[in-house]
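Why do we care about 3D structure at all? Because function follows from shape, and shape follows, mostly, from sequence. That is the central idea of this module. The next example makes it concrete: a single protein chain, its amino acid sequence, and then its structure expressed as tokens.
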Amino acid sequence: MCMKSLTTDAFERACELVLRVGRPLEQDQFKYIFGEETVDEVLTEMSKLQNDDGGFGHGMEPDIKMPNS
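And the structure:
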């Protein structure tokens, strides 16, 4: 298999897309991966999706919008 690389321009456009249309959790994860945020900021955003039973819901998975864990 041949690995392909993004051009700098394509990578910058992909970054802009995530930061423009990504959900807050995805934006924070992206910023963390590239050193712009701390893990605490990601965890804070995740806590907004956590239920009282400790599980996660509220659309954490983008294809399932139910609030239940």
